[in-house]
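User: Can you help me understand a structure? I only have the sequence.
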Amino acid sequence: MAFTDHRTMRRVLRREIAGIIGLLTDEHDFRAMRRYRTFSFDNHRTYLQQTETVLKTRAAQGTHTTLALFDPQEYADFCAETGLAPDDPASRTRFTAELAITGATVPYDGRPLTELLPALVDEAVRQATWEYASTLLARLGPCPSCGEDIGRAAFSRATALLTRILETAPPGNRHLVCSVASTPETLDAVLHADQDADGTTRLDEAEALEFTTVLALGLATGNPGGLVMRTTAPDTPDRVYGWRLRGDTLRPLTAGEVFDAYCTDAESGDLISPESGVDYCEPPDLGEEGLHRHRH
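Assistant: Let's start by predicting it. Here is the structure, written out as tokens:
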């Protein structure tokens, strides 16, 4: 009887243990791992199929699993820094455990990997964008005139601007995109700001942090950039409007400029037919006079 009780207790405890799986999302990364003798998979599709089977089994047992993006180069660097042998499953397990703290992750929620892998890659891009933009902001240092931290001041201003943008937006679900020219490539951030029936706006904190940081970088550096928002609500046309980053502020785009931006192919310059049920318009006044602006 005691043996049965102990076995039952261990089974219950196993359900209390959360797991994390480091995933190789593409063929290139998969091939990079095949150089290790202890990495026994030889086909990426089979590897993903077997991983999905394990995920479904764990979910059926009531066990939570998190998916992490496994980067072979980061793994090699990790092993070099920690003195671990890279061709060892225990080293891969330890690296994967670190990813739960520092890396890009998404929870397994029963969706097929064909849907979860793009979400995982998007999360990795979002995290990398935030880290890069944050690093650039930190490097700006203090203002030579007044000593105020330029990056911190820009972040405060970006926060105030985003708040005003959402406060002045029409009711509905909002989709915002901010782009700032940078080196080696343009930084893009996306924010979804959906409204509940009572008018409460729901924001993903990680998205909001990344979005505000990218906007702050544009304000602090004066690099070319822009911000556009699309609002969707029942029984009304979608509304699209935006601003151009100019110095440490946002300059409203005209309805014609918004139309041109949405109805011109970025690569060829050819015109694209406008969407039906979409109103390309000018943005509301943000009332920036009351917002703090750092003069430097």
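Now, to help you interpret it: Residues 2-110 form one domain. Strands lie at 19-23, 65-69, 105-107, 173-180, 187-195, 201-203, 225-232, 238-246, 249-252, 278-280. Let me know which part you'd like to focus on.
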